[in-house]
Amino acid sequence: MILADDMGYQDVGFRGSNILTPNIDKLAKEGVILENHYVSPACSPTRTSLMSGRHLIRTGFWRGNVKPWEEWGLRLNETTLPEMLKRNGYSTHGIGKWHCGMYTWDHTPAKRGFDTYFGLYLGAQGYFSHKRSGHVDLRDDYYDKDGKFVDDVRVDLQGNYSTYLYTDRAVESIQTRDKSKPLFLYLSYTAPHSPNDAPADEVERFASHIPSTPKHRKKYATQISIMDEGIGKVVETLKAENILDNTLIVFTADNGAVYGNKGSNYPLRGGKQSLFEGGVRAVSFVSSPLLKKTGYTNTNLHHVTDWYATFQKLAGDKPSQHSKPQLPVDGVDIWESVSDNQPCRDEVLMNFRDHSMIQDSSEHEFLAKRERPEVEEELGELGDDEFSDDDGDFFVIRWKDWKLFTGTYKVQAWTSKNSLGTAAKFDRSDDGLMGGGGKAGSGTKLFDLSADPREETDVADKYPDVVKTILEKIPGYKKKMTKINKRTRSSEGKRDGKWYPWVKNL
Description:
Elements lengths: L1 E3 L17 H9 L1 E7 L4 H10 L3 H4 L21 H6 L4 E7 L18 E5 L10 E2 L2 E2 L2 E5 L5 E5 L8 H14 L7 E6 L11 H8 L9 H24 L8 E5 L23 H4 L3 E4 L8 E8 L2 H10 L19 H6 L6 E7 L4 E2 L34 E6 L2 E8 L31 E8 L15 H8 L2 H7 L3 E2 L8 E2 L2 E2 L7
Parallel strand pairs: 1-9, 1-10, 2-12, 3-4, 3-9, 14-18
Antiparallel strand pairs: 2-11, 4-7, 5-6, 7-8, 10-11, 13-15, 15-16, 16-17, 19-20
Helix pairs in contact: 5-7, 6-7
């Protein structure tokens, strides 16, 4: 399973980009391109849905990203994807970005089903410094020969470009795997998420043909090309180890490129943090000799939660036979859909935000009571700005070819091919289609994606019966929502120049 971070829908060669991605292009063209693969519009919600097979309205991540200093995460009663595969005999190795919570040790990846984890707990860091807010967060987590958990913060690797490190560890994990067990490898690159770090010589090698404007696109392109080259090395290693023929490779971005920045979601509208197609329809494909049909673009509807259900079926997991209760899974088994182009679902909830589901309690499940000093929020650092707990309520869903927005939501426009558009219009009324009255984009809007994939024309007045049918789904989703606590923050996770979990479990 390979994830890219904040990668634009159009920023791959097979979609006509000027960014060099020959390895991704080859895998996609020889495999199956997933045209309607939906994710969440931000990092944590997508990753927690992938890890749990459950929608963000159930995991509590409908509020958005978990930030470095915040005291919440993917709840401990969730059975994670590596946890599920591990109980079915798999070796499980995680590499790169976690971003599912780290305020207790039990929320960290090697405590959630991974045999080993090499990467960062948080959502971003310097590619060379491996620091967030001046503190290092590059871990090498494993269990020693006596079964004792070891967390080694690799300060010795500072100065090494992290994308290279992740690729090297992936290659090593394949080469040194336990050959008596099947392997699950989670390769979660931080590229091309901010900061805009890339080696100067690699910018010249990969991006000399990229125009100098927009300002950061050369480095952005280089970040993607270095990741692409790493993916090629991983595939060559699988081939050299004679296991490629029995391997399923899944690639997806966690959300679209940041709007009005350096990536391109062309021809889609919007980007990261918006629920327009450019924010939630990810560049994605599957590649494997096990696929029944290959070399085409699959237009079936898929969601990131579906991989949990699919891997669960392929692994032969029987949840009732395990001591830990399996919470309801929202994903569906899409193997026949991606392998043989069979339809699988007709509906994907993008997000549902409801302030009535935010409770005043500051206590945490599974944790000892403690005092938590409030800390000042570091707004905007490394691309973390997003919805706050004070933003409006909304419900956004795709049903068949219809996409409905209702409530108060973030408004963004379009970006151009291989570049960017105007500055992002966040919650403004100057977009005549979605806004009005000096407030955020609001009201009920309907788009027919079969005729209008760019979400340019509101047809709600033309199809009132469709609007009524979709709005009637809201109470059913409301029943599935998980209440969440107001955000609490602490600076206790930063000490001795490193990041550490800071809250003790009961």
